[in-house]
Structure formats: structure tokens, C-alpha cells
């Protein structure tokens, strides 16, 4: 019998909070049960297993991150939208490191749960929308989306791991990297003969 007041959403939020505190890799069913003051077995009435819980954390984080980015980029275009998008991405990664990690690793998520979750689909739509001002056609648009995601994820991961030991503040480099990314997007290289489509 499920404990009164315990829901899949409440278990997921407890797991997400724990992930931000100790890292996603340290989230266990036992640790979440202790946080909620219940026995481990009580959780299984709401989530199937640890993989299911981590998938739910990923979906929660995708929704949260997408809302933050959508609010930041609303009404903006070009360089202004790119900076707002990137800053919202970086701030979310700083504010919720465990949840952010969950959004970046492949998870086996219940297809029905995934179908009901707007975050992942909306994240893709937002990224393509933000890049529309750069007037890129396919396949360049998809390549640009991949470049932006790689650049932002790489920077915030290195920053979180203490990979920027130079005296120059990481925030200053971040601003210059966004300037460079904008310039590259504006001057996207043309396809050369023989390039893959």
C-alpha cells in the first residue's frame, strides 16, 4: 500500500533535490527514501526502479530548463536571443547541477511518460527558433543546433569540474565565447563541392 501523501512527483522532486546536493550518480532509492522519511519499499509504488527515477528527474529538469530559456528568450532575436538562451542554460546548470546532469545523459524513459512531457520536445523547438534569425537552411540549421549545444554544454561542464584554472574569470571568457559563436553563426561557411549534404 502506498504511503499517504507520497506521489511519483514528490519522489521525483526529492530525487532531483538530492541530485543537486550530492550529484546524480549518488542518488539511490535508499537515499531518496531516507530523505522522505519512508522505507525503500514505499517508493516502488510510485517509481519502478532507480532508472525510472533518474528518467523522471531528467524530464523534470528538461521542463524546468526549457521554461527558464523560453522566458529569457521571449521577444528576442539574433545575438540578443543567443546570449539570453546561453545565459539561461548556464544559470540552470549552476543552480541545479544534478538535474542538469540528468538532462545530458541518455535515459531509458517510459515512452508514455516521455510522450506527456513537453520539456524535451520544447527544448528542441526553442533552439531551432532561437537560431532562425541566422537564416540557415538544412542541413546547416541542424549542424548549428549541434554546435550551440556542444559549445554551451562543454563550457558549463568544464566550468563545473574546475577546468578553468586560469586567472581570467570564466564569466569574461563566456561573454567572448558567445560573441565568437554569434559571429560564426552570422558567417556560417558555405558548403564546398563534395561535402556531405
TrEMBL record:
Q: Which InterPro entries match?
A: Homeodomain-like_sf, HTH_TetR, MT1864/Rv1816-like_C, Tet_transcr_reg_TetR-rel_C_sf
Q: Where is the HTH tetR-type domain?
A: 5-65
The entry's DNA-binding region feature spans: 28-47
Molecular function (GO) terms for this protein are:
DNA binding
Q: Entry's Pfam families?
A: TetR_C_33, TetR_N
Is Nucleotide-binding tagged as a keyword? no
What SUPFAM superfamilies does the annotation carry?
Homeodomain-like, Tetracyclin repressor-like, C-terminal domain
- Indicate whether Transferase appears among the record's keywords: no
Superkingdom, taxonomy of origin: Bacteria
- Alphabetized UniProt keyword annotations: DNA-binding, Transcription, Transcription regulation
> By what name is this protein known?
AcrR family transcriptional regulator
Amino acid at each position: 500500500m502506498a504511503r499517504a501523501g507520497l506521489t511519483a512527483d514528490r519522489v521525483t522532486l526529492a530525487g532531483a533535490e538530492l541530485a543537486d546536493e550530492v550529484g546524480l550518480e549518488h542518488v539511490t532509492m535508499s537515499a531518496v527514501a531516507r530523505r522522505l522519511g519512508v522505507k525503500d519499499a514505499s517508493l516502488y509504488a510510485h517509481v519502478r526502479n532507480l532508472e525510472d527515477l533518474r528518467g523522471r528527474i531528467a524530464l523534470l529538469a528538461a521542463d524546468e530548463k526549457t521554461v527558464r530559456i523560453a522566458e529569457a528568450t521571449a521577444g528576442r532575436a539574433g545575438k540578443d536571443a543567443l546570449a539570453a538562451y546561453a545565459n539561461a542554460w548556464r544559470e540552470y546548470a549552476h543552480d541545479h547541477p544534478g538535474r542538469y546532469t540528468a538532462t545530458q545523459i541518455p535515459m531509458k524513459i517510459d515512452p508514455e511518460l516521455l510522450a506527456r512531457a513537453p520539456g524535451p520536445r520544447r527544448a528542441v523547438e526553442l533552439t531551432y527558433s532561437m537560431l532562425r534569425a541566422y537564416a540557415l537552411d538544412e542541413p546547416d540549421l541542424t549542424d548549428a543546433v549541434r554546435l550551440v549545444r556542444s559549445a554551451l554544454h562543454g563550457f558549463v561542464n568544464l566550468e563545473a569540474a574546475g577546468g578553468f584554472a586560469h586567472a581570467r574569470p570564466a564569466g569574461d571568457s563566456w561573454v567572448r565565447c558567445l560573441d565568437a559563436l554569434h559571429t560564426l553563426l552570422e558567417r556560417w561557411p558555405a558548403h564546398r563541392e563534395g561535402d556531405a549534404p
